[in-house]
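Reopening: Methyltransferase type 11 still failing for me.
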Amino acid sequence: MSLRLILIPTLCAVAALTAACDGDKSVRITSSHSSDEDAKGVLKVVDALQCPQTIGSLTRKGSASSEGTVCKYVGPRGAEVILQLVPLNDQKPSDVLQAFETRLSADLPQAVAGLRASAEADKARAEADRARATADGARAEAEVAAQEAEAAARSGDRASVRAPGVNIEAEGDDATVRLPGMHIETRGDQASVRIGGFHIDANDSTGTVDIEGGENGDSVSVRARDDSAEVRASASGDATRASWILTDNRPSPEGWRMVGYEARGPVGGPLVIATIRSRDRNRDSVTEDAKALVSLNVGE
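Support: Ran it again with your exact input. Result attached.
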């Protein structure tokens, strides 16, 4: 079996953190972190929103409303961005953001249903995988004890490579690759990758990808299921720096393919939150411009 055939689909899953492996089905994430919390900047306490007439691809609709706490913008193809100043009122920031998620998710019901059903199926598969892992462990011990001849390793059905810091074992559709800072396991259509602080699970037969990880308290989470994907990111520290995006290839009755928010706020609030609705599922200029609106008001 070619090691290239083992690594390419797995590394495509890793590449989902920053770029695409297959065009429109990609999930792109850009994240940064600093060991110095102050390097992120001090977020401002805001009394009223700054709402420029235009910012990037966005144009404000009317004037700020509700005493300067709400501004509405339109973007390309009818995209909508609503900038809001939200007091915490003794609530946790996570509870406030969850309420926004719930409202925005209602605009993409098919994506929510698909992700929920897939999560339940994943749980059932995980139980079956644990039972299979026990059997696989016994088989692996037998294989190590047998120590097949080097000629068999060259036959193409089985390969074994060992070097300082490198351990590669491949047989049929199964492979284990251990490199410094990286651990890859493939079993047929399934792949598990641990690289740095990230853990990636992919299943080609079910069209699913899960990515969890982060460093220095920052975190990124991605769930992708065929036509839909959910991306969540948050920064470390007591201040709120969070983003959430839900996408679906299938448009809602209103034509939406992407919803989400960008939120920031100092400890104790208030939060500045830009909600996004777009008819384009890709994270395009609308998302970046919404982020710029939040930064203009509360800081980086």
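The chain is about 25% helix and 35% strand. If you still see a failure, please send the error message rather than a screenshot.
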